[in-house]
Amino acid sequence: MHPFQGKYRVLSKLWALYGLVMVSSCAARPPQEIGEFKASDLVELTQLDPSLQLDIRYATSSNFMGRPLYPAARAFLQRPAAEALVQVNQELKPLGYKLLVFDGYRPWRITKEMWDSTPPSKKEFVANPNKGSRHNRGCAVDLSLCELATGKEVAMTGAYDEMSPRSYSNYAGGTPEQRALRDLLRSKMEQHGFTVLEAEWWHFDFKDWKSYRIQNTPFDKL
Q1: Residue 34, exposed/middle/buried by CB under 10 A (0-12, 13-18, 19+)?
Q2: What's the rounded Cα separation, in Å, for the pair 14 and 20?
Q3: What number does CATH give the domain 3-21+41-221?
Q4: Domain boundaries of the chain, sorted by first residue
Q5: What is the mean pLDDT of each run of 10 residues along the chain (222 residues)?
């Protein structure tokens, strides 16, 4: 386990202990949006490509919140984004890698829970629920690479969900191999319509994200 992951677990327990989550996300509602939007067509990634490897941390306690947020380890995206991701995965295989997916569509209420639980100094790493997240639209995916032969996650410049400068997409530290793998992932994703988030090397937004509404539908209703 990366040392920062252990620290986040401790922090999450302290936040819960001292009652820093002051607002109930269950009582709140997503922001109201005006305009024309495409009909949602969220699809499960492993239905399109069973070779995609999942590590849905938010379905476990191994995340910065320190508790499960999802009822099941599943990942969804809007169909065009999902189909583009499948193309990326296929292009990586001849290079000895495949995609390791951490997260896709995220109900809005989960975004609010994350925001309410994150101290001000770390809020650059979480989405503001008043604006909604691209995850809420089904057009953002968190992922990394794993070895095709073994399924082992590769080492990047920082750990997934690490709230430090090592998470920046242009972080100059780490080893040359780590930076090369991070840049390989970014290059392949950009070739298929995704854009990396500056603060998180693992977070990619699909080009059409503005075309879809913020959603709050739970997994079991999809």
Answers
A1: exposed
A2: 9
A3: 3.30.1380.10
A4: 3-21+41-221
A5: 50 43 56 95 98 98 96 98 98 98 98 96 95 97 98 98 97 98 98 98 97 97 92
Amino acid type, 216:
N
Distance CA 85, CA 81 (A): 6
| pTM greater than 0.90 (yes/no) | no
> What pLDDT is attached to residue 28?
82
Cβ count within 10 A of residue 159: 20
157 in Cβ contact with 141 (< 8 Å) = no
User: What sign does the dihedral 105-109-110-112 (CA atoms) show?
Assistant: positive
d(CA 105, CA 103): 7
Q: Considering only CA atoms, give the Rg of the chain.
A: 17
pLDDT for position 34 = 93
* Tokens representing residue 112 in the block: 């609010």
Q: Which residue from 220, 212, 221 is spatially nearest to 82, judged by alpha carbons?
A: 212
Smallest CA-to-CA distance from 40 within 221, 202, 204 is with: 221
Beta bridge partners of 175: none
The crossing angle, in degrees rounded to 10, of helices 176-190 and 79-92 is 130
Q: Quickly tell me which residue has 């209420």 as its tokens.
A: 109
Q: Identify the bridge partners of residue 43 per DSSP, sorted by sequence position.
A: 77
Q: Between the CA of residue 210 and those of 36, 134, 174, 189, 199, what are the distances in Å?
A: 10, 8, 34, 18, 20
